[in-house]
Design goal:
This protein is of the alpha/beta class and 580 residues long. Among the domains are: 4-89, Arginyl tRNA synthetase N-terminal domain (Gyrase A, domain 2), CATH 3.30.1360; 392-570, Orthogonal Bundle (Isoleucyl-tRNA Synthetase, Domain 1), CATH 1.10.730. The chain has helices at residues 4-19, 45-53, 57-67, 91-103, 136-151, 167-179, 195-208, 210-225, 228-252, 265-277, 316-329, 345-357, 392-410, 416-436, 448-451, 459-476, 494-504, 506-516, 519-539, 548-570, and strands at 30-32, 41-43, 74-80, 84-89, 117-121, 155-160, 257-258, 281-284, 287-296, 302-308, 335-341, 366-371, 374-375, 444-445. Helix 17 (494-504) runs antiparallel to helix 19. 43% of the residues are buried.
Length: 580
């Protein structure tokens, strides 16, 4: 079914075309009214089209209103200020709309008219060490976007482009050559007791010893050339690292398929050869690079995107080009979305431009989504108390521990099993919600106390709202979900009408969420719905009502809120709680 803004826009477009023949029509006509006293929706079409039409905006608005045919949708259409058109929906239309929406298992949200095969590249930790908090955003943003697209009906290939190749492995292999050379003779006898300790020791040597650093770079070339002994030890590192990663993914309820940089190793030479043959890659100071138009250094000189180093080795750009080429060429993807931090925006812009010029992929079908930094409560990069990098598993453990303490405080009479469930959902869900409730591109401050606040835009607040609806059901002794569609919702108060309108806005919100791939827009809607339910809860007694029809109406309204919240949280990988 169409969203309410789409329904209104479909009526405004022909009216505007009638009074302004030949004038370009504004693409965005209708948006929710900022102030409900003006109506339910507000349109700025007259002001947007007035200049092109050569008319006064308010006078044009009057002409549009006269030509409008919305008597079946609206009880009133008014003009305000310089030319805003305000729409007040008919109560019976709104009730019918919400009824149709709730009768649908998808809340009235249609699947995409044209479905696609879409690669979503997210998480992507560098192996040989454990995941840290810097990997959180890519992982949960990518999972949410994948869920959005899957709900839309697309075939989504969830790809974990792990860093299992490159300098860090040359460093580790060289360290083994010097500290444990027998491992290179029989990798089956090689084990890693502590990934982090091993990595720190080799990194320290790499940073302090130039000869070791040079040898490490040569080890990378040996790895890329397929030396069997080197590959055997490399596999031990990869397997151990991925074991740690997938333990985190299980905690976060993430589905993802590992396809690391090493997967494309055999294609790297082919990529460079093709670029040479097409006249795109040229030699520059011993290396091979592609000079993109307009790309210059500080001296305003042409700057190459290197695809092969002077020693014959390959770099990230080469691997990413091979990945783009494979995804569009072999996997036949219609679209590719890559989620990394903002700092890699320029890198992927170059990769997409080169792939387009080489004829491998239309750059308009490749999207890089850059995210901001996760900061501590002090506004500085998130660190341990001693200034070290916070392991992601430690963050999640602490989140659960703090949520457990909160659960015991809120519900002292619950069982240990109930407390553990609440801790798991509110702890892990709280971390996800805290991150996803902010704009993807912006930095944000992470604070455990704010994350677990029982009021405000937090997971626990929304989860408590859902649990309240379940509590109503238990106390009423009814399966209130079954009331939806069977009883007539009969709103009598301002709070009930407000709740209905917020529920009715869900398809329109989803439209924005999918167009912008914006989890924060969805969570803002769930928070608004939870807040409106709180106002309803406080103002509208339900269980003690003697009027059974009104009682059932309010119980059905609570069930509708629960449906939207449960669905919305599932779109970001957060389960609900029956009681808190």
């Amino acid at each position: 079914m169409q969203s309410l803004p789409s329904l209104l826009a479909a009526r405004i477009q022909p009216a505007l075309a009638q009074v302004c023949p030949g004038a370009p029509l504004p693409a965005q006509l209708v948006f929710p009214a900022a102030n409900p006293q003006f109506g339910d929706y507000q349109c700025n079409a007259a002001m947007s089209a007035a200049k092109a039409a050569g008319k006064n905006p308010r006078a044009l608005a009057q002409e549009i209103v006269a030509a409008l045919k919305v008597s079946d949708l609206c009880s009133s259409v008014d003009i305000a200020g310089p030319g805003f058109i305000n729409f007040k929906l008919k109560p019976e239309f709104l009730l019918g709309y919400v009824g149709d929406m709730l009768s649908s298992p998808r809340l009235g949200i249609d699947q995409a008219a044209v479905t696609q095969r879409i690669v979503v590249d997210f998480s992507g930790p560098n192996l040989a060490k454990e995941m840290h908090v810097g990997h959180l955003r890519s992982t949960i943003i990518g999972d949410s976007i994948s869920r959005f697209l899957e709900f839309e009906g697309h075939e989504v290939l969830r790809v974990n482009h792990v860093g299992d190749w490159g300098t860090q492995f040359g460093m580790l292999i060289q360290y083994i050559r010097e500290s444990n050379p027998e491992a290179l003779e029989d990798a089956s006898k090689f084990a890693i007791s502590d990934l982090e300790e091993f990595y720190r020791a080799s990194k320290k040597r790499f940073d302090e010893n130039p000869e070791f650093a040079d040898a490490s770079r040569r080890a990378v070339v040996a790895l890329q050339s397929g030396d069997p002994a080197t590959l055997a030890v490399w596999k031990v590192f990869c397997d151990e690292s991925l074991k740690h990663c997938h333990a985190i993914y299980r905690d976060l309820d993430i589905r993802i398929e590992d396809r690391g940089e090493s997967f494309y190793n055999d294609d790297l030479a082919k990529v460079v050869t093709e670029l040479k043959e097409k006249g795109l890659a040229v030699q520059a100071e011993g290396a091979w690079g592609v000079f993109l138009p307009g790309r210059k250094n500080e001296k305003d000189e042409p700057l190459a995107t290197i695809v092969q180093k002077s020693d014959g080795g390959y770099i990230y750009a080469t691997t990413d080009l091979a990945a783009v080429r494979h995804r569009f060429g072999t996997l036949k993807a219609d679209r590719v979305i890559i989620i990394t931090d903002n700092r890699q925006a320029d890198h992927f812009s170059q990769v997409f431009e080169i792939a387009d010029t080489a004829g491998w992929a239309d750059k308009s079908k490749s999207t890089h989504i850059g995210f901001g930094m996760m900061l501590g409560a002090d506004g500085k990069p998130f660190k341990t108390r001693t200034g070290g990098t916070v392991k992601l598993k430690d963050l999640l453990i602490e989140a659960e521990e703090r949520a457990l303490a909160l659960a015991k405080q809120l519900s002292a009479d619950f069982s240990d099993e109930d407390h553990k469930l609440i801790a798991k959902v509110a702890g892990i869900g709280g971390v996800k919600y805290s991150d996803l409730s902010h704009g993807i591109a912006t930095d944000y401050k992470f604070d455990f106390d704010k994350m677990l606040a029982t009021d405000g835009n937090t997971a626990i607040y929304v989860l408590m709202t859902y649990a309240r609806t379940r509590g109503l059901a238990r106390k009423a002794g009814l399966e209130i979900d079954a009331l939806i569609g069977k009883v007539t919702i009969r709103p009598e108060t301002e709070q009930e009408w407000r709740l209905l309108k917020t529920i009715a806005a869900t398809p329109a919100v989803w439209q924005r969420v999918v167009e912008d791939l914006a989890p924060n827009a969805l969570l803002a809607h769930l928070y608004e719905l939870a807040r409106d339910f709180g106002a309803f809860w406080n103002a509208c007694p339900t269980l003690k009502l003697e009027d059974q029809e009104l009682k059932n109406s309010r119980l059905a309204l609570a069930a509708a809120v629960a449906r939207v919240i449960k669905w919305g949280l599932s779109m970001v990988g957060i389960p609900v709680l029956e009681k808190v």
